[in-house]
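User: Could you check the structure of this?
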Amino acid sequence: MSESVSQIFADLDLRALASASSWAVEQSLQIQRIPAPTFQEGERAAYVAEQMKALDLEQVEIDDMYNVYGLLRGANQDAMHLMISAHLDTVFPIQTDLSNRREYESIYGPGLGDNSLGVASLLAVAQYLRDTRALPACNIWFVATTREEGLGDLGGMKVAFERLRGCVSRVINLEGLAYGYVYNCGIAVRRLEISAHADGGHSWLHFGRSSAIHGLIELGARICSMHPPANPRTTYNIGMIAGGSSINTVAAEARMWLDLRSESRIALEELEQKVRAHIAAVRSATLRFDVEIVGDRPAGTVAASHELVQDSLTILRLLGVHGALEAGSTDANVPLAAGCPAVTIGVTTGGNAHRLDEYIDLAPVMDGLKQLITLTFISAERIAGVS
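Assistant: Sure, the predicted structure tokens are below.
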């Protein structure tokens, strides 16, 4: 176990940590109540920018993607910088009831764990550093990103990392409900919008004509019969279907959205080719298909032996948690694909992410922040060459 990690862990100001933990929970509730569907994060971004200014961060700015940036200067101005990120957007439509409620030691609210608590915890690190007057070894960029969910295609992080990649050498990405896990592998994701086109007509008069919906259903059945490899883990999901004009009309148009994922870019490409082969098999002179790529998330990995990963696991052990390495699709995919070491860690446990009854557990929050703040200090030291 690294003495530097254990020493930083032991030296944390517990009173300031407890204050930051309570503040993070309250901030998460404030953030959660501000609607932020993917592509509509502006109001939430403005609130986060106000909080960054109140925490005395410098160069606070909202870019054209609604990413929010704030800089905290460290001891070594010449060293590369650390980036801490958390995504602002949610999967819930703008009209969703965002009220929350507390039950025993849990709080329920759509988008609370994914990712309002992650954003609040990003701010809580800055609050802890301000209140303790602790100076990290290098500069830290705090970045609240957008377009992480749904069809956002990690658009916010792609822009933010491209802007900062010349000065950032490590990234700590936050997902509110991932406590106990260290994501060191960003899986490849390909998303297709598949549209079917036919002549259409009347359900009685033109029975037998090609139907866009019938064709799409046949294609969907073929896709659902596929058996992707378990190793490397590879998956598919038809997430949305739309089309047709009435119950008694032979559909002229229909479309579906297909999500393909894999730990291997090669396996993902092979799966996509199988999908395209099924499309070719269903296509006919009177049934046409168009395919549009609506998502292409890059893949990347930082080795389990890398000190950023090992430091994350060490801190969890100090907290009495047996940390697990995990693969997934998060904002960390972007720096990982560019060869920049990055991990995604969590702040608490909970459940029902992407559902209206999503919840967070309160008990682990302080330990989650303790992990995050310790990892922030040790990462800054390693960047600056102190540890």
